[in-house]
């Protein structure tokens, strides 16, 4: 009996638990092989040939290789999926798991042909937690670290921070670093620390772009400030920013489809589609008031084109091209800056 193909598929909007699953696979490989090279690729940025070359290459210095491929929901090409299938089948027949592929998708599903490549035991959907579970998680996080949350503090954290355990853990750790151990954390402490020291990400950038209560000019100004912070930080090159925004606008297209024809989906349907929490619902309600489904699709085309243009032009024009991209999305609702209409 052939071994299971060394391919994993982790989907869904709960980034923190999803990242823990990735780490568990990598830790297991390190334990088995001793040494491990880890590579991160983005389906919208990297050619499938580059991914397969990495998986098939033999290192003189490292016993095993793990490739994490983000944006798996965008893999639609029959040729790309066929090439992945050939590699996975060969690895399974040979019992070779020294090279492993982990497919990551922010959405809960991928192309059915791609899904079939992954053994059932290697697939997992990481749903966004319900609001009461998030509150339990927050109280547990602070309790483990020797702190107590006063009434209203946990609810305010959920209003200020992207609602997944990765973002919550990062922001709450920063909050703890600035408050004496053993303290009782009040809502005013949360407001003071988190609202003024928020860690920016492509998702906070999208939130600023989608703030319908501000004028387009105000949204552009705030968004350009966030973009500058991201590009000055070590963790966010333009490719990762574009990948994050692409994920957000894909979800916006999905949001519009759920409400098409005046229908109103129930809470369970929204949760299964990645819109479980009140914060994310509010975010996409706001975004839907700015960009129609057609405009959101136009933004996705712009993001894809910008990604290719930036790779072609190199780092010299990168910041300028990213600024132009935000201008086109915010001020022109997805129309190219080259169009005078």
Beta-strand portion reads: 5-15%
Uncertain runs are none
Helix content: 55-70%
Largest sheet: 5 strands, parallel
In one word, what is the shape? Answer: globular
Class derived from helix and strand content: alpha/beta
Mean pLDDT over the full residue set: 88
Helical stretch tally: 15
Give the N-to-C terminal Cα separation: 62 Å
Tell me the total number of β-strands.
7
Q: H/E series, N to C?
A: EHEHEHEHEHEHHEHHHHHHHH
Radius of gyration: 21 Å
In spatial order, strands of the major sheet run 2-3-4-1-5
Key structural traits:
single chain; 341 residues; alpha/beta; 5-stranded parallel sheet; two-stranded parallel sheet; 15 helices; 56% helix
Give the helix/strand layout.
Elements: E1 7-11, H1 15-33, E2 36-42, H2 48-56, E3 64-70, H3 78-94, E4 99-105, H4 112-115, E5 123-125, H5 131-144, E6 148-149, H6 153-160, H7 165-177, E7 184-185, H8 187-194, H9 202-209, H10 216-232, H11 238-258, H12 267-272, H13 278-290, H14 293-313, H15 318-331
Parallel strand pairs: 1-4, 1-5, 2-3, 3-4, 6-7
Helix pairs in contact: 1-7, 2-3, 5-7, 6-8, 9-10, 9-11, 10-15, 11-13, 11-14, 14-15
Q: Outline of this structure?
A:
It is built from 15 helices and 7 strands. It is of the alpha/beta class and 341 residues long.
């Amino acid at each position: 009996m052939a071994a299971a193909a060394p391919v994993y598929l982790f989907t869904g909007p709960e980034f923190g638990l999803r990242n823990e699953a990735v780490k568990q696979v990598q830790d297991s490989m390190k334990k088995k092989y001793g040494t491990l090279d880890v590579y991160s690729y983005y389906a919208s940025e990297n050619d499938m040939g580059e991914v397969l070359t990495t998986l098939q290459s033999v290192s003189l210095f490292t016993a095993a290789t793990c490739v994490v491929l983000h944006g798996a929901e965008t893999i639609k090409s029959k040729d790309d999926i066929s090439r992945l299938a050939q590699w996975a089948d060969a690895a399974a027949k040979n019992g070779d798991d020294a090279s492993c592929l982990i497919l990551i998708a922010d959405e809960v599903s991928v192309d059915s042909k791609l899904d079939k490549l992954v053994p059932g035991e290697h697939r997992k959907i990481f749903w966004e937690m319900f609001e009461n579970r998030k509150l339990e998680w927050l109280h547990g996080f602070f309790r483990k670290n020797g702190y107590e949350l006063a009434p209203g503090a946990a609810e305010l954290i959920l209003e200020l921070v992207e609602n997944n355990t990765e973002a919550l853990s990062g922001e709450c750790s920063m909050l703890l670093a600035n408050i004496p151990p053993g303290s009782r954390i009040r809502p005013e402490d949360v407001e003071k620390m988190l609202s003024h020291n928020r860690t920016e990400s492509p998702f906070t950038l999208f939130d600023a772009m989608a703030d319908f209560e501000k004028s387009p000019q105000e949204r552009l100004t705030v968004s350009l400030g966030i973009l500058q912070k991201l590009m000055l930080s070590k963790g966010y090159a333009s490719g990762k920013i574009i990948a994050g925004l692409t994920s957000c606008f894909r979800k916006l297209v999905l949001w519009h489809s759920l409400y098409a024809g005046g229908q109103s989906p129930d809470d369970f349907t929204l949760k299964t589609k990645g819109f479980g929490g009140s914060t994310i619902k509010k975010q996409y309600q706001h975004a839907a008031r700015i960009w129609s489904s057609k405009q959101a699709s136009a933004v996705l085309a712009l993001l894809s084109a910008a990604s290719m243009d930036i790779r072609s032009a190199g780092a010299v024009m990168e910041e300028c091209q990213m600024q132009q991209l935000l201008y086109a999305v915010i001020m022109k609702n997805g129309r190219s800056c080259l169009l005078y209409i």
